[in-house]
Structure formats: structure tokens, C-alpha cells
Hints:
binds adenosine-5'-triphosphate, four-stranded antiparallel beta sheet, alpha/beta, Rossmann fold, 65% helix, 4 domains, six-stranded mixed beta sheet
Amino acid sequence: xxxxxxxxxxxxxxxxxxxxxxxxxxxxxIALSTLAVPVCAVALRRAVDAIDGGHTSTAVMAxxxxxxxxxxxxxxxxxxxxxxxxxxDRLGRLELHPRIHRDISRVHGLEHLERTDxxxxxxxxxxxxxxxxxxxxxxxxxxxxxLKLVLAVLLLGTVTPWLGLLLVFxxxxxxxxxxxxxxxxxxxxxxxxxxxxHRRLAELAVSASAGKELRVSGTAExxxxxxxxxxxxxxxxxxxxxxxxxxxxxxxxxxFIAAFVGALALITHRTVHGHGTVGDVVxxxxxxxxxxxxxxxxxxSTTSTASARRVLDPYLWMREYTEREATRDQGEQTxxxxxxxxxxxxxxxxxxxxxxxxxxxxxxxxxxAGAVVAVVGEYGSGKTTLVKLLQKFYQTDSGRITVDGIDxxxxxxxxxxxxxxxxxxxxxxxxxxxxxxxxxxxxRHVNDRERIQRALGEVEADDLVRRLPNGLDTQLxxxxxxxxxxxxxxxxxxxxxxxxxxxPLLFVLDEPTASLDAPSEQNIFEQHMARARHLGQRTxxxxxxxxxxxxxxxxxxxxxxxxxxxxxxxxxxxDLLALRGQYADLYRLQADAYxxxxxxxxxxxxA
Length: 607
Ligand SMILES: Nc1ncnc2c1ncn2[C@@H]1O[C@H](COP(=O)(O)OP(=O)(O)OP(=O)(O)O)[C@@H](O)[C@H]1O
């Protein structure tokens, strides 16, 4: 519980610092709403008793106070929730969301984004950020509601302690309502599959991509029929549960009304027999009428505060995790200005978190400075894992990697990443202007047009820019009113982005052209080979090319063949062919297959 209090204190301080007026207004609204009904009730009693006693000015004053308190309670009914929601929304979107994203990106590696325990919690928190911040206001509301209840009971007690029993009767409709709603929620869960099916089928019926198949296969009517069946299956039980919930609520209300009438009879009887004033009757009626609402709000705010644990626990877990990981030693050494020896991988093994299987198993290899090294192998053989370890996204489980003799773990992570550039298979498709989507490859030069043009030139994408309606300033992304690029064009922009850094020590191409046809891939790799040679001469940069297509990488200086995480062959293309091992077999197999399909695939996709 202490953890929650300290989180609420932190959230409140944040809210107070960043949006003082909103926070103060919300607190004031809650405080006023706590006092409005008791003040109104006491003032009414005073007014009625003053009229009874013939004290006109007191009666007028008290009536004015009562009217004011009543007006405040009416206004707050509409505005307090809105104010709370706005303050909460601002705190969530402007403070907590960015804070969560910052926490996540503070972690230098990628492990956390691939750990299921982290991802599960991150999903809960991302979808429920509003609940984290709202838990603060629910807690404040719960305190305010408990105060309201205490005040109500105290006031009723001033008339007769028996009226305290009204609290129990006021709780009954709230409890029955709770039982009914629990049933509704249970039925919603039980029928969620049918509900999901109905929604999915409804989306299918209007989606452009599925539309083609529905029309060709003539299954549209069948989809509509299934949609109707799923709707009945989900909505029938839900409607019945709603009906039962409504009936339970009605019973609760009837009981409360009976108790209320009984209480009125009791007070009237007492007053008639001289045990109280007419003002007491008015007070009791005013307080009792608001009692059910107060009990309901108390239950709701305390339940919401308690159920916020569902999001608060994962949020606190994530924060502790990212804090621990972000402050882990990230190395302090600066990478060399240029590579002279190269990168050495020494008996490296690695298994992904939560798995036993080694993604890399005792790999040892030297990547000489200035070399173009290709990594080939079947699906899942460990190629990308090797690349990720070289970029310090993960730490090796055993063995080590050195860069010109310096242990990679001792190189400052950010500075090492500053000196590497990469294009991945799942490269980003940034919906900004075309210039920015390229410029992001080197944030310091994101607005440097000359550099962007040069990077585009290096991957032969000048022609693509010329065809864009606003050239470099063309907005990308249809959802933002911009242009959508073809797959091949997106790939070109990713390659240009990687070319923004002019002095990398490690340049990685991890199957960025996987969805292009073989000749296009060949073409792009040839350009990059040329760039790699140039970089190699300037900074001793190592270019690492990952590919499934053996033919594409035949020109590399060094080829590594991975199989189930192990390095099984390495050497030049000629060495490996002469070896007649796995590389030679797969190379011939692919060459034959390509020869058969070549006539059909000669155009570059984005030409
Ligand atoms: N995030 C992850 N969590 C758990 N296992 C993973 C993860 N990423 C990869 N693996 C496993 O590690 C092994 C090596 O994967 P890796 O991505 O390095 O292979 P790859 O050779 O690059 O494959 P592909 O050619 O399909 O891209 C595979 O068995 C894969 O299932």
C-alpha cells in the first residue's frame, strides 16, 4: 500500500507543478461537493426553525445559504466530473505517456521489448494509462465520499440515532445494483467470443482487402448470415442479464423508499410529540435523499481505487525494471575514430530471455576492418541475433565481442550506436515529410538538405524524389493526408536513411530488400558494396550483409554460414564452393531455381 501512496503523492506533485490551476480547481470542486449537502441541510433546518420562531432576518439569511449550497451542488454535478476528467487527461497524455515512453527508451538494449513478461505489462499500462492517473482522483474522491457519509450520519444522529439505520437501507440498492452489474459483466465475458465474431464479420463485410475475396467467392450473403447469428448469440444473454440487473435495482430502490417513508413517519411522530423541530424534519429529509447517491459514489470510488491495482502493479513493476536496466553499466569507452583490426567474436553464445534454445552457439569469427561480410543461413539460424549482439541490443550470455581489441561491453552504448548504421528487414515507415523520413537516419542532420540529397543519391533514389508532387517536402502517409509509397519505395527511403551517417564503423544490411525480386536486390547490394568499399577505405568500416539469397552476396569478402546458431562454414565464395558443403549445395539450389523463374522477374519493383 505504501507504494501506491508514494505513487499518488508523486502524481499529485506532478499535476500540481504542471497544471496548478486545473488541479486547484478540481480539488476545490471536490471539497465544495463534500460540503454542499450538509451545509444545505443545516441551513434549511435553521431557516425553517427561524420561520417557526418568527426570526425573519435569520430565516432569510439561512435560506440564502441553503439556496447557494444547493446551487453549488447542482453546478458541481455537471462540472466536477468534467474538470476531473480534463485534469486527469492532461496529466495522462502530457506527462505520464511521455514518461512511460521515455522510461522504455532509456533502456539501451532490446531485451525488454521481446520479453513476454515486460510486453504483457506494457500493453496493460499503455491501454490503461488513464487508470493510473485516475486512481489518484478516485482515491481523493473516495476520501471525500467517506467524509460525506460521516457528515450525513452525524447530522442524522442530531435528530435521532435511529436514523443512522437509513445508511443500511441506502446501501441495499447499491449492493443489489452491484450484484446485477457483476452478472452483466460475467455474461459479457461469456459471450465475448460471439461478440468479437460479430464485430470481425462486420469489419470483414466493409473492408476493401476482404471485399475482393468476398466478391470473387460469392460468400457475402453467408458472412451476413453468420454476422446475424453471432449478434443474437451475444446479445440475447446480454439483454436478459441487463433485465435481471434492472429488476434487482428496482427491488433495492423499493426497499429504500419504504425505509425512507418509515423514517419520515418516525421524525414526524417525534416532532408532533415535541421531541424535535420542523427544521429537524427538513434536515433529515434533505440528508436522507442524498444518502443513496453518497453510498453509491463511495462504493464506486473505493472499488475503482482498489481495482486500479490491475494497472498500478504492472506500471510500478515496469518502472522498477526500466530504472534498474537503464542504470546498468553501459560502458564508458569511446569507439575508435577508425577501425584498424576489426571486430572479433569470441566463442559467443546467446539464448533469448525465457527460452532455453541457444540462438547463437559458441560462434567465433573475426570480421576484418574494411571488409564486406555476408551472413547467410536458413530461417532462424541466428543471423539477426548476431547483428543485434554486434549493435549491443543484447549482452552475450558467454564469450565476448571486441572492437579493435576493446570489449564491446565497455564501449559506451550510445557512442557505439552513433558509429553504426543499419537497415533492417522490418525497417520503419515514418509518416513525416519525405526529407525527414530520410534525415532521421542522423538526427543531428535531419534538416540538412544537402546531406539528405547526397544520401538519396547514394541509393539511386533521386528519381523517386523527382516524381513526388512536392519533392522532398512531400508529406508521407495517407492517414495524414499524404502520399503512400510502394514497398520498394519505402525500402529505398530506409536505405537512404542508413546512408545519412557518413562515418559508421559498422554498417548493417539485414535483409532490407527481402520483398524485392532477386535482380533488384542484386542491384541494391551492388550499390552498397561500392559504398562499403568506400567506407572501408575511409574508416575501416565493416559492412555486414544478411541475406537468404546466396547469389546476392557472392561478391562479399567473407561469407559466414550459420546453421541452428552455429557457424558451420566461413570463407570467400570460391572457398565455400570448393568446400562443397552446405553453402555450395544451397547456392546451386537457389541458382537453379532462379534460372527457372528469371524471365518472370526482371523489372525492379519500384521502377
Ligand atoms: N525475440 C525473440 N525471442 C525468443 N526467440 C527468438 C527471438 N528472436 C529470435 N528468436 C529465435 O532465435 C533463433 C534465431 O533467430 P534469428 O532471428 O537470429 O534468426 P535469423 O537467421 O535471422 O532468421 P530469419 O532469416 O528468419 O530472419 C530462432 O530460433 C528464433 O526463433
